[in-house]
Specification:
alpha+beta, Nucleoside Triphosphate Pyrophosphohydrolase, 8-stranded mixed beta sheet, 4 helices
């Protein structure tokens, strides 16, 4: 993956990663939060924000126009050492975001009464996670992708034990990463690359041999911004 520059964010660290603290901060955001509600006015809010474009080409910016609603579950697994975030790696043949690390989720269907229902249904379909084992804490601000999905991240707590079974068509791997690692701003990188005459920026969070980037990393960076808030 080409990159013309990389920087690491320098925001304050997170002090409290308890379920109670996370619930309180999500409750304070309300049912349909925006980044401005979090006090964030200048951060990445799309999978790839176009910073510049070649002459004659329009620079793409995040917008809710002509987007498709989608929901992803941000599963927080309660382990003895603390909360982990459950993530998947998508199979290489998928049309959208093939091979990328992602949260379980997908587009909203007519049968889904709420976006929370979408996230829970997709998690069950993709990784076999029983919705009855998930306690929803709240939602994060919508995240608009370059593929025109308006993603609502639904944060939920999962208590072990549980059995998972990956859908082999969509999911190549299921794994966990400590929330403390993902919330640490020193692990947040901003990358840039040239593509089709446009300079694009995106966040990434390397973890061992894994490279979390794009929408998933952007959502995690926004989540970390909320967790770092005091009060």
């Amino acid at each position: 993956m080409e990159q013309s520059a990389v920087f690491r964010s320098r925001r304050n660290g997170v002090t409290d990663l308890s379920v109670a603290a996370i619930r309180a901060k999500l409750d304070a955001l309300g049912p349909s939060p925006t980044l401005s509600d979090m006090g964030i006015s200048n951060t990445l809010v799309a999978e790839a924000d176009v910073l510049s474009a070649a002459p004659g080409r329009e620079a793409w910016r995040p917008t809710l126009d002509k987007t498709r609603p989608a929901g992803v579950l941000v599963p927080l697994v309660e382990r003895d050492a603390g909360l982990n975030v459950l993530l998947t790696r998508r199979t290489d043949h998928l049309h959208h975001h093939a091979g990328q690390i992602s949260f379980p989720g997908g587009r909203k269907e007519e049968s889904d009464a709420t976006i929370e229902d979408t996230a829970l249904r997709e998690a069950h379909e993709e990784i076999g996670l029983d919705a009855r084992l998930v306690t929803v804490l709240g939602v994060l601000p919508q995240y608009v992708t370059l593929t025109r999905f308006a993603i609502t991240p639904v944060v939920g707590v999962v208590k072990p034990p549980f059995d998972l079974k990956a859908d082999p068509f969509e999911v190549a791997d299921i794994f966990e990463v400590p929330l403390a690692y993902l919330a640490d701003p020193t692990h947040h990188e901003r990358h840039f690359r040239e593509e089709d005459g446009r300079r694009r920026g995106f966040y990434a969070i390397p973890y061992g041999e894994r490279f979390i980037w794009g929408a998933t990393a952007g959502i995690l960076v926004n989540f970390a911004g909320l967790l770092a808030q005091h009060g």
